[in-house]
Amino acid sequence: MARLPPLLAASAIVLLLADPAGADPPIVVSHQADTVSVTVYRNPQRQPNRAIAFDTEDEDPEPLGGYAMIAETRTVDLPPGEAVVRFEGVASGIVPQSAIMLGGTLKEKNFDSRLLSQRGLLDAFTGQRVTIRSTDDQTGQVSEEAATIVSQPDRLLLHTRRGYEAVTCSSGIETVLFPGVPVDLTAKPTLSMTTRPDSPGGRQTVTLLYLAGNFDWQANYVMTFSPDAGELTMLGWMTLASRDRTSFPAAELSAVAGLTARADPPDADEDDEDYSEPAEQPEDPYAPDNIDISFDCWPQGQTAGTRWHAVLFGPGSLPRREFIAGSYESYYFGQYAEGRCDDDEDGCDREIIVTGSRISSRTDLGDLKLYTVPFPTDVLAQSMKQVRFMDDHKVKGELVYNILSDGESERRQQLLFRFHNRKRDGAGDPLPAGRITLFQPTTAGRQFLGETWLNDKAVDEDVEITLPNPDKYGITFETDEDDDTDKWTDYTATLTNKGDAATQIEVEFNYDDYTFSRFSGPVRRHRGAWQWRVRLDPGQSAKLRYRRTDPPENDEDDYEE
Questions:
Q1: Residue 99 and residue 27: Cα distance in Å, rounded?
Q2: Tens digit of pLDDT for each residue in 422-474?
Q3: Which three-class secondary structure state does DSSP give residue 470?
Q4: E strand or H helix at 8
Q5: Could you tell me the domains of the chain?
Q6: In 10 A of CB 202, how many CB atoms?
Q7: How far apart are CA 93 and CA 285, in angstroms?
Q8: How many Å apart are CA 527 and CA 522, to the nearest integer?
Q9: Residue 478: pLDDT above 80?
């Protein structure tokens, strides 16, 4: 084999030492964002009559089902050439493939799940020297010795001067002391991006955009009837929830009203030879279940009641709630209220935190609506927040007792407050889907009436609010059969107001394939049904005769598959 001359060999060594081709690119850490905006999208699968599932006592809560688009502006100092930029403090529920960086020279991106935790430290220091501190249970004497972590997938195995040992198999409390924290290990969710080799470097302001799951929001309305039930005072709140483990202080917070569709990838054919079931991915790699680990005495069991001591890193589990742009109306959202005294304290009044008086602004996004909080606000981890988005509206409408009948009996009854969503009637704003808390005036003051819900309603659309407990209004619907044949039946229907107030009543005749005709009084076609409308004073009754014709029967001889 030919040998290089000594001078050339020395030059080659210098070149090899100076050649950075095999070296890892430098790491630049962005610890926090300069500014951040959070835009929350509603869970499209949750119906408006269901509240956001935010049970603080649930050890394994379901994901909220909505998501957020997060935009972070950060200032970074980049060296020339290729470098790894670590964006710490992104949302723990980030969808990594959705992330883009504007204003930088991007080569690749990674979501780092190497966490500053018990599991992350053991992963990082496997094969390296650590210190074992042991405390004797009986004497309290503390001793330390050097050890090497050999393996730790199922149980922690160490190599000490005595040989190979499994942690927790001695008679003391054992603590593993690590000499430092690896540069690529973090306690915060981190997105890494690698710049291109031709990057000029220097100070750059970049914008990081990405989607994150486990957010949700809904509208909450407080509505109060006038004494004659001909008018409704209405105001609206946005209730926003985050079950993410990252907080975003002083964020620009918005919510998008209306349903948006997120396309799922096409299903693969399971019969295809190339098909393989995708591996399950954790909903949140920073969740305690994905960080914490525990070890038993090797090969199995535990001796002498030993324990292994570890300090676990991670956010707290208790949610925090806050009310913004409030008034006394927020008191009625008891399910969200956070008190300032103990629950078992007698005579303790809950106090709502009020931090402002301005309401959210609205912007049109095509068929969607964007509501933005007009001042920076904290979007805290594991928290709920209420923001007022609609000021008091005095809406004119009518209270209607609605009955659906198949002609022979009553199929459904409901009490409705109906209005047209337009300015001249006191409304005229989009109404996002959500829950409604109803009140009514009484001689004893304003009293709780019940709860209901509302679907998304646009401007200039009819709105019907269903009130609870319609049977307490004393409206009865009875029918008597007058005549019948094999094909039709004649009925007389009787409406009676047994209540104590005059009531507008409407009966809709519509069921299966029956047809109705020969009405003895005025009726109208409404939403595909015949509708009989009448206003009854207390104790008053009204009658209507009509014919119900049975649906045609199929001739089995003429039936073809």
A1: 19
A2: 999 999 899 999 999 999 888 888 899 889 999 999 899 999 999 988 888 89
A3: helix
A4: helix 6-18
A5: 475-549 (2.60.40)
A6: 10
A7: 8
A8: 17
A9: yes
